[in-house]
Amino acid sequence: MPQVLALALLSLTIPQAARAACEDPPGKGVIWIECDKRGVDLRGADLRGAVLTRTDFRDADLRGAKLSRADFSFGDLRGARLDEARLLKARFLSADLSEASMAKAYAKGASFDRARLLRTTLDGALLDQASLYQSDLTGARLRGASLRGADLRQAVLDGADLGTSDLEGADLERASLEDARLSEARLVKTNFTKSNLLFADLRNSDLSAAILVEAILEETLFDGARLDKAQWIDRRRCRRGSLGTCE
């Protein structure tokens, strides 16, 4: 009988504790798990190191918030605003950021593995050394973004706009960039091995020392693209001075 009573009391206290955690005020290291934060205004808030997994942040305003090392994994951030947020080494594993705005966000070393970023705005964002393995960036905007050394293996960037972006040393092995726009992008030493660049626009981009081995380049636009020492689909090395075509 005492055991039954103890279990009954435990079943009552667990949901109350969960509710109390969700009602905790924002602050460093706060724990909001599976909470409803839809439309919340957290502009400029300090949530560094916070645990925010599986929480609903749809249409939330997090502009300029301090979110370094915060964990948004499996969360719903559709339509959220994270412009100019500080996201150093933040985690968004399998999170949904579709149609969110992250313009000029500082997300160096952040993890977006298997995240959904459909039609997400990342113009001018800093994503150097970020991990976007198997992420879906279909139709995303990344104009002027920096993704130096980023891991984009098997990512989907179909129809994405990466014009004037910097992907030096980024890994896009087996990524899909069909209809993607990469005009005037910096693609020095970028790895496109076995990637899909069907109908992609790479005009006036810098592909010096890039790797294009076994990539799909049908109807790909290379007008004015610099291909110095790039490794072509057949593994031959393009000559120095190659412009628009591998010579």
Protein described:
With 247 residues, the protein is mostly loops. 9% of the residues lie in helices and 0% in strands. It is built from one helix and no strands. It has one helix spanning 2-22. It is elongated and about 65 Å long. 53% of the residues are buried. The model is unreliable at 1-19 (pLDDT under 50).
Q: How is the topology of this model organized?
A:
Layout (H helix, E strand, L loop, with lengths): L1 H21 L225
Apparent shape: elongated
Q: Could you give a short account of the major beta sheet? A: none
Approximate helicity band: under 10%
- In quaternary terms, these chains amount to single chain
- In DSSP terms (H or I, runs of 4 or more residues), the helix count works out at 1
Strand portion = under 5%
Q: Which sequence of SSEs, written as H and E, runs from N to C?
A: H
| Secondary structure category | little secondary structure
Number of strands: 0
User: Which segments are poorly predicted (pLDDT under 50) over 5 or more consecutive residues?
Assistant: 1-19
Q: Provide the gyration radius in Å.
A: 21 Å
Mean pLDDT, as a whole number?
Answer: 93
Query: What is the distance, rounded to the nearest whole angstrom, between the alpha carbons of the first and last residues?
Result: 85 Å
Characteristic key phrases:
247 residues, 0% strand, single chain, disordered N terminus
